[in-house]
From TrEMBL, chain A:
Species assigned in the record: Halanaerobacter jeridensis
Annotated active site: 194 (proton acceptor)
Name of the protein: Endoglucanase
Residues that bind Zn(2+) 2: 164, 195, 303
Domain of life: Bacteria
Pfam families (UniProt xref): Peptidase_M42
SUPFAM superfamilies: Aminopeptidase/glucanase lid domain, Zn-dependent exopeptidases
Record's signal peptide: none
InterPro entries reported in the protein's UniProt record: Peptidase_M42, Peptidase_M42_aminopept, Peptidase_M42_dom2
UniProt cofactor(s): a divalent metal cation
EC number(s) recorded for this UniProt protein: 3.2.1.4
UniProtKB/TrEMBL annotation, chain B:
Family: Belongs to the peptidase M42 family.
Cofactor descriptive note: Binds 2 divalent metal cations per subunit.
Record-given protein name: Endoglucanase
Coiled coil stretches, renumbered: none
BP GO annotations: proteolysis
Location of the active site: 208 (proton acceptor)
EC number: 3.2.1.4
Swiss-Prot/TrEMBL cofactor(s): a divalent metal cation
Matching Gene3D superfamilies: Peptidase M42, domain 2, Zn peptidases
GO molecular function term, any single one: cellulase activity
Pfam family, one: Peptidase_M42
Length: 332, 351
């Protein structure tokens, strides 16, 4: 599984620019599914036909947070804005990659003496160009960049950029390889543009019309030194979502996941996330409403270049989802 | 108490935090079924009660009042058994210390919200209002028992008995928007033996307080020709003038603003005048504040109106309203349904 994680996290795909990561996922799964297609927003939708004709949609977003060039000055320095939620503090000294191929480094303006005043206007990217013309050979206004960071295997835990939510993509891929024929028609959807407002899943769900929609994404943890209070910890099992800013998980869906975890003797945690949203929110409000919930993989340092997850949590999430797809669901 | 006050008391005292509306749903179904022909639910749990009109393929009108209420949710259980919590919807955290609460765990548990007393606070701490992060719920139980009976994600409501005040006023929790449910009931009572052409869908929506979510899906499913949201608005009180609020007991507040169709506004105002129903105009400009917004932008767009009950102390457990405004609003809406014809509905398509 670690090889697959490495492959996905080292791929390029800020929101709206998901072509490279989509092709990699597509190659990985196309022989394992009954149908695979891409919609107008770039969502990759893979279907595994089930025994019954109800529809389950699993959504993991393949886009990652990034930056977008909005000005190049005469000396070739690139100014930028964010794509999704990146704190400017994360970017001091960071390396980034434009278009999946051009590296750059970030620093702040020298006149900035108060670090509290750090914002996007005070930062620039240096791609090593000696002037504007040279910079423009490699970067055009509107080009996006991602963090530039290698995957690291730390043993039980791994660290990398974009585990949010490539680890969800890995979970979906491992789940679809795990199960033969699911109980219901199951759509494994690798969504786009989640980081800018759950846009991909919104249109994918509109088209699929699922009877049950589950997001598979990361969630924050509260187990670091002096962390903000949060009851989720790394390595304690998949987190079954109760609430975030985008969704109140349907109690039936939440309880089903809890029951499945208990029956299969899988560790689990319950997630009440005070900030942030997921694809579950957009799926729930599709058309006249969809039963929705989420399985979250605990992740430290979310939206930094060094996110961290525990492999046991990923494996247990795969087992939980496989159990879900293998069984009849009483309320469908 | 007269019957409708008694019903509002029950509605106010029943719990139904956004996303967890099971108990309040049972109550609402109970009171609406007598006056409607069919009740159904959608996937989010919206209660859709339909009263059929006399005309085949007559206009479809949707009333929406939300039955969910703001509340709290357990976010962490400390080793000693104290419960940490977050809010569901916009709870005013300054009003929470010292409240009695009900935790809806494996069973209903009574508790209180506590925080560090001023005596042991530093001078600096004392100057600031308590934040939710400083507070906890104490159930009075041993830690082991707490962990058996409470789970992360369990919801909590403030415990508050509904009271009648003088001058037809009442006070309680969750009158936002159980008052709206009572308006729908009053309209249905008025329409009981009255012939009307339109099919009337009275919808008790869910998850309004977390972003008008229930109205979003129920409107999509019903596809009404007209949607009317019934909610509460701020009432005047010391420090809140009539520029920002409507008068308690001053009549049904007819909303006017970007999410209200101008012809719907005029029509409701005309009906109020013709029938001598006391009303006031409530300019309303903030989007996403009520179900009217969600209804308006559904599918290809729905002509929408907003009727509000003036309410003081919004999002506290002492919300206060006048029963008179509920009665007037119910009557106004009933007259609207009675008069509604195809011609008016067609006219809404042209500005």
């Amino acid at each position: 599984m670690k090889n697959l994680i490495k492959k996905l996290v080292e791929s390029y795909g800020p929101s709206g620019d998901e072509e490279q990561i989509r092709e990699i996922i597509k190659a990985e799964i196309k022989d394992e599914v009954d149908n695979i297609e891409t919609d107008a927003l770039g969502n990759l939708i893979a279907l595994k036909e089930g025994k019954k004709d109800k529809k389950v949609m699993l959504a993991a977003h393949m886009d990652e947070i990034g930056l977008i060039a909005n000005h190049i000055d005469e000396d070739g320095f690139i100014r930028f804005d964010r794509v999704g939620g990146i704190s400017p503090y994360m970017l001091l000294g960071a390396r980034v990659l434009f278009n999946g191929e051009t590296p750059g480094v970030i620093d702040k303006e020298g006149q900035l003496d108060d670090i509290k005043k750090l914002n996007y206007d005070k930062l620039y990217i240096d791609i090593g160009a000696t002037n504007k013309e040279e910079a423009e050979e490699k970067v055009t206004l509107g080009d996006t960049a991602s963090y530039y960071r290698e995957f690291q295997d730390l043993g039980t835990r791994v660290t990398a950029k974009s585990l949010d939510d490539r680890i969800g993509c890995v979970t979906l891929i491992e789940t679809l390889k795990e199960i033969d024929t699911p109980e219901y028609d199951t759509y494994f959807v690798f969504t786009t543009q989640e980081e800018v407002g759950t846009r991909g899943s919104k249109v994918a769900a509109y088209n699929i019309e699922p009877d049950l929609g589950l997001a598979v994404d990361v969630t924050l943890t509260g187990d670091m030194p002096e962390a903000k209070r949060m009851s989720v910890s790394l390595g304690e099992g998949p987190a079954i979502k109760v609430k975030d800013r985008s969704v109140l998980a349907d109690p039936k869906v939440k309880n089903l996941l809890i029951d499945l975890a208990k029956e299969n003797e899988l560790p689990y945690q319950l997630e009440v996330l005070k900030y942030g949203g997921t694809d579950a929110g957009s799926m729930q409000l599709t058309k006249d409403g969809v039963l929705a919930g989420a399985v979250s993989i605990p992740c430290r340092y979310v939206h930094s270049p060094s996110e961290m997850v525990d492999i046991d949590d990923v494996e247990n999430s795969v087992k939980l989802l496989a159990a879900l797809l293998d069984n009849e669901i009483s309320f469908l | 108490m007269n019957d409708n006050v008694e019903i509002l008391k029950q509605l106010s005292e029943t719990n139904g935090v956004s996303g967890h509306e099971k108990n309040i749903t049972t109550q609402v179904e109970d009171i609406l079924k007598e006056y409607t022909d069919e009740i159904k639910y959608d996937n989010l749990g919206n209660l859709i009660a339909c009263k059929k009109g006399s005309e085949q393929d007559g206009p479809k009108v949707m009333f929406a009042a939300h039955m969910d209420e703001i509340g709290l949710m357990i976010s962490d259980i400390e080793d000693e058994g104290f419960l940490r919590f977050t809010s569901v919807g916009g709870v005013d955290q300054r009003t929470l210390v010292g409240q009695e609460v009900t935790v809806l765990g494996q069973e209903e548990l009574q508790g209180i919200i506590g925080a560090k007393p001023p005596h042991v606070q530093s001078a600096n701490e004392r100057r600031k209002a308590y934040k939710m992060d400083d507070m906890y719920i104490d159930l009075g139980l041993e830690a082991e028992e707490v962990k058996e009976k409470v789970r992360i994600g369990d919801v909590v409501t403030v415990k508050r008995e509904f009271e009648e005040l003088k001058n037809n006023r009442v006070t309680g929790k969750a009158l936002d928007d159980r008052a709206g449910i009572l308006v729908m009931l009053t309209a249905l009572q008025e329409l009981k033996n009255i012939d009307h052409k339109a099919d009337l869908y009275t919808v008790a929506t869910v998850q309004e307080e977390v972003g008008v979510r229930g109205a979003t899906t129920s409107t999509y499913g019903i596809v009404p020709d007209i949607g009317i949201a019934i909610d509460v608005c701020h009432g005047t009180m010391p420090g809140v003038s009539s520029e920002d609020a409507a008068e308690l007991g001053g009549g049904s507040a007819i909303g006017f603003g970007p999410h209200v169709h101008p012809k719907m506004f005029s029509k409701l105002k005309d009906i109020a005048e013709k029938n001598e129903i006391k009303y006031q105009v409530e300019p309303s400009h903030t989007p996403r504040g009520t179900d009217a917004f969600a209804i308006q932008v559904t599918r290809a767009g729905i002509p929408t109106a907003l009727i509000s009950i003036p309410l003081r102390y919004m999002h506290t457990s002492v919300e206060t309203i006048s029963m008179k405004d509920i009665k007037r609003s119910g009557k106004l809406l009933a007259r609207f349904i009675r008069e509604l014809n195809d011609e008016f509905v067609e006219g809404l398509q042209c500005f």
